[in-house]
Amino acid sequence: MGSLIDRWRFWWRRPATVWQLRVERERSAIGRFNDEVQRRLQTEMPEKVVHDMLVALDELMTNVVMHAEQAAGPIEVELRYDMRAVQARVSYLAVEFDPTTWRAPAVGATIAGSRIGGLGIKLVRTLLDEFRYEYVDGRNVLILVKRC
User: Fold this and answer.
1) Which label site among 1, 53, 59, 113 has the fewest CB atoms less than 10 Å from its CB?
2) Residue 87: what are its φ and ψ, rounded to 5°?
3) Cβ 89 vs Cβ 67: under 8 Å
4) How many angstroms separate the CA atoms of 140 and 143, rounded?
5) What are phi and psi of 43, to 5 degrees?
6) Are 104 and 88 in contact (CB under 8 A)?
């Protein structure tokens, strides 16, 4: 953070702000969602916090679009942020799948022997301070937390 005024604004914010959105299960909708989140959070949160949360959200929602063929309806996202952290609650209607227990396949010894993909969830784990899962009323629910 730069100036003294920027630091003051960061530490003397109002209580948690909550923002709820529905994102259609298509790649372009995820891009529009990320643009809007970045626009709203860039003046509210440190740049690294916004970046890490956006990368994690993009990866997880893209996984829903690309791999959860049985998913139905939009992806629902609730963002909650205050001076301590940003938290996202992502939920979608689909067969139960817990990404927090999923393990990436072994990395090949050479580029030719390696599989493409499979490292996104591992990346999410490294970017976030908390990554939790619940299955509630037929919905996969992911809780993501990035602290400031």
Assistant:
1) 113
2) -125, 135
3) no
4) 10
5) -95, -5
6) no
